[in-house]
Amino acid sequence: MTETHVPEKLKAPVLGAVITVSDRCSRGEAEDRSGPLALARLAEFGVEVAHPVVVPDDIDYIRSALQEALDAGARVIVTTGGTGITPRDNTPEATEPFIALSLDGLAQQIRLAGLAATPLATLSRGLVGVSARGDRGALIVNAPGSTGGVEDALAIIGPLIGHILGQLSGRTHEVESADE
């Protein structure tokens, strides 16, 4: 019988970033609800974010915000919005150059979680991956722009943050089996 491996908890808070990608929010025409929600959920998992950054659905703005977050030392970056298929949904294209290792299984789990609420969840093209191996590597998650999409993404990703960052830093884990 195999023991269940419990994801490790963060031993100390880590720096994070939340980037809301929305033309309407960036122009002040709509309230950003998904960014503050992501910030609150990340705090529950030991990730500190000062405030969400809001940028328009533009590849250059999104890339600039991602680079600024990495340069500031963020270890966890969550984007909200821009993961669909409209002409202005550019978040995956903007994020792709920052991902050194894709975590496609996690992206798929986020989509599957969203299916409980809506078949539209399968249209999300959000990426999940890490920027680099090592102590400076960051987990990058493209969450849908809805509050439900953020909830789904962080329900999947949140409990794994400590383990993912530990793995990036070279810590290994062992799952023991009663058969051994």
Automatic annotation (TrEMBL):
Keywords: Molybdenum cofactor biosynthesis. InterPro entries: MoaB/Mog-like_dom_sf, MoaB/Mog_dom, MoCF_biosynth_CS, MPT_Adenylyltrnsfr/MoaC-Rel. The keyword Phosphoprotein does not apply. The keyword Iron does not apply. One of its GO terms (biological process) is Mo-molybdopterin cofactor biosynthetic process. Pathway: Cofactor biosynthesis; molybdopterin biosynthesis. CDD domains: MogA_MoaB (cd00886). Pfam families: MoCF_biosynth. Residues 17-164 form the MoaB/Mog domain. This is Molybdenum cofactor synthesis domain-containing protein. It comes from Bowdeniella nasicola.
